Each structure stands twice: as structure tokens, then as C-alpha cells.
């Protein structure tokens, strides 16, 4: 449809999304889509939306798309492709060049260009840009900017029309241009799998495009991209390496999917993988395939751990005396295991402490800190944890002023930081919640830590392993080369807390749990009933203890009425109902409201991934909406509407996300529907988040089945074996 841009209604500058009014003579515009009241003109006015729409009336637009109906906005045109039609007149070209679409061209500049080149102006800019220097008063820098901007515009249009059959938005298309610039079209045609390097273009998307372009199913490029994709998928499941045959089989399945006869043979895959290994893009370590970076991390981390475990500790002096003084000062008598833990930390360079909730880990840390201060007269101690919440709890529990997130201690505060910028030189480093640390972060930590630092790693090995690849804490324990103390006596009012007793039972795979006020199970017959009961319990508990002390923890994020997403929307609409458009914000189909409880999902600008906050106000500034969020530590932060991708609602969280946090009361749905997800360490992690009360809702047999599923160590990693081997080699 040919139309002209009339008025911008909304724009999201971060992704180029725009809603606007357009005018046309095209009578195919549905009657309900025509705007009549405010735009009485001979033209037909309608609303359209899309990405990177040229916001100028200096040219005409040829738009392709579909009419879409929404309850809120009525019928609008969803623009999928948009071509600029520059009128073939000097005035038309001046209008186009000075419309703002081409950076650095004012009307005066545009006229200078048309004065010189007339109707050939656009052709000159495109094909003979150097000739622009014939125009007096145009600096080289300005010419460069004009040419760059012009070719970006043009290339983008080409990319978009090339990709139009594949449902790729303009926004995504512009990411291709940002990555490959003027080479974009060449890449799309010649080496389409290079697109996998662009954010938002996974192998599956690219494969569809590439196979249609010209790529043969058994093209090496395709096999290589598929192997890389599958390696990344394995890593996303927590594996550090993949056995060679498993990778070959997975490639065979993926590459032949959708073909009636074998399109890629096992031999072709084998040969392509051999080539990948020869070229150094994959590593074959005795039949185990790694991404080179993963291999390097595993080897270097293992070396670093073995070196530290063999290094003689500093001469501390009278550890026993300091230990006695610390106990006297704190008026506490540590158990034998606790004393052993303290001694271990001063007799070794690297030590591990593991224990479940209430087993006295924090108490031991306090004494370790006391002993260190006593022996050195110094406070050169770094406390760190993988999440902001865990760091905060660590500081509170030990009575230290600060504890950092590992990211901030290592200078990895921005998402783009791939390399750690800070080295850690403290005399004593204690890391809590170590089970959450993946191989990437552990590798960075040990690479950037002074070799003389005394390191104490604390965690609960029975909790879920890290989200990222590896099973670092468990592997360290299993290496049997790093000194460890397991704390297993529960101190916290033993016998009274069923949570702690049941945690112990679950840890051991026992299903005969104790039920009572602090550990409830509510049977429900269906998922709908479970949701109803979650709502009822949540409101009761919030009334009793307040919003921030009650947390719903669900195994699954999406799909189903008891998924995190569904529970969040349901609870929010009751607890914090709609109060008007001006108090709401939208981001990518999600809706946020003033007073909503939210969670931050990314480390940035002093706010840590996992921090909980509340939207305190919603305001508009310069036509843009903002949310002012107050985080639970008092930090306030404003987010523009288009930056809300970093937060989500937090009435319910996934169990994975809750690691490192604690709440007074947790409510957990357990249904056979999640059978494949319900594992012993998942249930253990969920219930140990509660300090005072656990309410499980659903089917008891699902809980029992989950407790019996113990696959916590099924992650491909050779860290333990490597540490053992290096230590053995050095002894
Ligand atoms: N040796 C001890 N004698 C008496 N009480 C102790 C001893 N050690 C710890 N406690 C008490 O037991 C409770 C739990 O201890 P602590 O907080 O150190 O455990 P934790 O393992 O850090 O627990 P969590 O992981 O749940 O935070 C505390 O109230 C603490 O004072």
C-alpha cells in the first residue's frame, strides 16, 4: 500500500518500534481502521506500527503487512516491509535527503548536493561518493557520515526485503547490519550461517533461511553451525563437554530433521567434526568434545585448584589461642566439626565448608573472621557471593559491613564484560553459596585471585547446581584433594523446625516427612485447584507477615496455570489491580504497574541480578514513560519503559532464581505435571529457602517421586578428575 507518514504516536528508541498515523488514497483500508474525527481530510488516515519506519512526509512509503485487531487499539496495520519512494524531482530528492533519515544532511546541504548533481544526486551518493568532495563546504567527515548513513538505509532495506518471507522484524534485520555492515547481503547470500553470530539468530532460524537461499543440506558450513549450536545447547544443560559419539548422533538427528531421506550422512558429520577439531574450533580431549574456551577453563581451574591445595599456608601463629579467644568473646562453644572447620581454614590455602540450613556455617564464618583479625590485626578480608541477595545475607549474618557479589569483586559489572578487570588481593577471601558458581565464574575468580590469598568456599552441595555449565562445588568436594569439613549437626532449635528436619530427610532421599504448622502439605486434585489454593494461602500469609516475607516458588517458568508467569499475573491482578493507563508500563507483551513487586534479572549499575524491588511510581518525561523502582536495600532507580526487559514480576519466582535467597514463608506447587523437573535437589533447594514455614500444594506422590529422583551429579565435567590428576602428578 502506498501511503505517507503523518504523525508519530509512540516510539521506542531502543529498538526502533514505532506507532504512527499514515495517510493514503488506497480504498482497501478497512472502514473500522479509518480515523475520521481528528483527521478530516480527503485522504484516508489509519494507524500502523512497525520497526524503523521513516518518520517523514517528504517521501512516500510502500508498506506491506497485515491488518491486526487488538481489543485495546482496534484495527491497525502491522508493517512488515517498508520501502521508501523518493519522488523523481529535485524537490523530492531534497525532501528525502533532508528528512532526517540520512544523518548529517540539512536542507542547505541537500540543496548543495542537488545543485551540483541534479536528479543524479542519489546515484552519485551511492555509486561515486568520492565526487561529493566536489561540493564546496562539505568536509570529509561530513561526506563520510552522509555516505555511511545512506548505505545503511539502503542495505537495511535490502536485508529486510530479503528476509521478508522468514518473518524477521526490521529490528532484527538491523542487528545484522550492525554486525556485518555493507557486507550483510553478501553474507546472507554466501555464508548465511555466519548469521548465527548475531544476537537473536539461532541455528534453527538461520537454517531455514540458509536452506532456502542456496545452501545444500550437507554443506560443511551447515554441519559446523549445527555442531556449534548443539554444543551450546549441551552447555545450557550444564555440561562442560559432550562425548564425541553423542555429539555426532545429535548432529545427525538435527541435520536430517524434516528430510524424508538421509540428507547428511554419518561420515559427512564425522569428517566435518574432524575438520572443526583440526581448525581449533572444537577440542577433542580423549573422545570428549569441548568448546575451546570451556576446555581452557576446566584445565586452568583444575591447575589453579591443585596448585592452591598444595601450597603451604602462611605462618599464622597461635591459631588455637585465637580460636579460644573468639569462642570466649562470642560466648559460644563450637562443635568439634565447627572447630575443625576453623582450623582447616588456617592450615590450608584453600578449604571447603559444606552444610545444610542451620548447621552453623555462618557461626563458623564469624569465628574465622575473628581468628583472622586476631592473628593479623588486619581487616583485609573479602566476603563475596554469587548474588546480591546472598552477599547481603552474608554481610548481615557475619556482622561485616560489606560483602560483594563475585561479579563486582571481579569487575564484571556490565553484561558486556567478558574479562574480569579486578584482581583480588585480600588476605582472606570467603565465598558463600558456592554451589551457585559455574565454571566460567569460578575460573575467573581463581585466575584473578592472588596465589597467596587464603580461600574459604562455603556452600550446600545438596542444593541445585549452578545455572551455567559445570558442577564446580560438587566437583571440588569429589576431587578429595581439597580439604573439606561437612557440617551436619543442626543447631537451630533442633526438633522444633520441621523444615530443617525434613531438609535432612530429603537430602538423604527419605520420603517420610514430618508435617505440621511449619511444614504443611495441602492436597489438591487439579492444577486449577492448586492455583486457587496458592492464591488463598498467599493472601493469608501476606496478611500475617507482609509482602516481602512470603514467596511463591514454582518449578516451571512458563506454561500452565501454576507456572511462574501465570501465577504472577493472577496474583498481581488481585493484589494490585488496574488503576488506569497512566500507572502502567508495557514491555514486550508484559505489563508492569505501580506498586508491583519485581525482580531484577541482570547485573547493572549497582543493581544485582536477583534484587527485589517495588515500582514506587510511574511518570512521563519528554513523551517517555519511566518506572521509579525502590529495591529492598533502599536503592532507587528509574527505568525507561523500553528498558524494562531487565525486570519481571516477583510474586512468584522459579526455584532456580530463588537460590541464595531466604524468606519467612515459601509456598510451592508440586504436581505430577512437572514430574520431569522435580528432582531431589530442586525440592531441597525450594524448602530450604524458608526460615519459618513451608506450604506445599498439590500431589503428594509428585513430592515423593521428586525426592527419589537424585540426578544432581549428572553433568559432564572432568574438573574433579583433573584436580586429582594434577595433585597426583605434583606429589
Ligand atoms: N556451636 C553452636 N552452639 C550453639 N548454637 C549454635 C552453634 N553454632 C550455631 N548455632 C546456632 O544455630 C543457629 C544456626 O546457625 P548458623 O546461622 O550459623 O547456621 P547456617 O548454617 O549459617 O544456617 P543457614 O544456612 O540456614 O543460614 C544460629 O542460631 C546459631 O547461633
TrEMBL record:
Alphabetized UniProt keyword annotations: ATP-binding, DNA-binding, Helicase, Hydrolase, Isomerase, Nucleotide-binding
Keyword Nucleotide-binding among record annotations: yes
A single cellular component GO annotation: exodeoxyribonuclease V complex
Binding sites annotated in the UniProt record for ATP: 358-362
GO molecular function: 5'-3' DNA helicase activity; ATP binding; DNA binding; hydrolase activity; single-stranded DNA helicase activity
Keyword Membrane: no
Catalytic activity: ATP + H2O = ADP + phosphate + H(+)
Domain of life of the organism encoding this protein: Bacteria
One GO-annotated biological process of the protein: DNA recombination
Catalytic activity, EC: 5.6.2.3
Enzyme class: isomerase
Entry-linked CDD domains: DEXSc_RecD-like, SF1_C_RecD
SMART domains the UniProt entry points to: AAA
InterPro entries documented for this protein: AAA+_ATPase, Coronavir_polyprotein_1ab, P-loop_NTPase, RecD2, RecD2-like_HHH, RecD2_N_OB, RuvA_2-like, UvrD-like_helicase_C
Domain named AAA+ ATPase: residues: 347-487
Role played: DNA-dependent ATPase and ATP-dependent 5'-3' DNA helicase. Has no activity on blunt DNA or DNA with 3'-overhangs, requires at least 10 bases of 5'-ssDNA for helicase activity.
Homology family: Belongs to the RecD family. RecD2 subfamily.
Protein name: ATP-dependent RecD2 DNA helicase
Gene: recD2
